[in-house]
C-alpha cells in the first residue's frame, strides 16, 4: 500500500509518499480502506517533532473508509461496513489499522468525506459546549479562529443554544465564513502585532457593554491568549483548545485571582471520547447535527496523498478555512 512516511522531523518536505506493507488486523482491530483522512494541526506538530512520534512514522489520526478485515474479538463491525475514527495513528495511508473501540459507524446518507471532515472537530465542539462549559442562552462567547473548521462548529453550536458569539479571524477574507456560521460580530485581528491584546479585548468589552464574555474558546494560543483573558467577565472561563500560533505563554495561577477569579482549562478529546459508549453518543449527535443542518461540512481543500506536504503548508499558512482532506484516490 501507499502511505506518507516521516523519516525525520522537519518541515512539510519530510512528508514522503512510500510503499509500506499491507497491515493485518490484530485482536480488537479493524483494517480499513481509507476513503478520506483529515489534516489537523496535531499532524503538523508531530511532523515537526513537537509530539510523541519517534521516526519513522506514518502521520495522521483521523479518517473514514470501508472495513476490509475485522480481527479477533471484534464485535459490531464486519468487512464492508463504513466507519470513521479520530484516534488511529497512521491514517495518512491507503489502509489504516483502527481499534474497533475507537471506530463509529458512518450513516448511509453521509459520505466518507463528510465523516472525515466533521468527526474530530465536531466531537471537540460537542464536548467543549456541553461538558467543558455548558453553553446557556443569554451568555456571550469569544471564539478565536471562528472561520476555521473547529471555529465554525463552535459558532454554530453556541448560536444554536442562544449564545451571543463574537468571533475573531485573521483576515477580512474570512469574515463571511464566520458570519455564515452564526457569529453575531466578527473582529479581524490581522497578523500578529496588528492589534494589541488590550485593543482586541477592549473591542470585545465594547460589544458586551463593558461586561466581558462568559467564555473564551482559544485554538490559536500564543497570539490571542492575553486578549482572551482580558476579555472575560468576572469568574469567566478561558478554554485553551490548541496552539496554532504556538504555546500559550506561561501563566502564574495566582494571576487568575487578580483578573477576576477566572477559570482556565486545557481539555482534550481523549478524556471525553475514549469510552466507546460516550464516543458513540457524541458521534451520533454530531452526525445528526450534520443531517439537520445544525453543523455544516466545510471542506477547505482536497489533496491526494502525494500532496500531503502542500496540505500541511497551506494549513500552516492560516489562509485556509474549513477542513483539509487527503484523498487516496485523487
UniProtKB/TrEMBL annotation:
Key words of the record: NADP, Oxidoreductase
SMART domains reported in the protein's UniProt record: PKS_ER
Keyword rRNA processing: no
Domain annotation Enoyl reductase (ER): ranges: 10-326
InterPro entries: ADH-like_C (IPR013149), ADH-like_N (IPR013154), ER (IPR020843), GroES-like_sf (IPR011032), NAD(P)-bd_dom_sf (IPR036291), QOR-like (IPR047618)
Keyword NADP: yes
Top-level lineage group: Bacteria
Parts forming coiled coils: none
Protein's name in the database: Quinone oxidoreductase
Lineage: Bacteria, Bacillati, Actinomycetota, Actinomycetes, Kitasatosporales
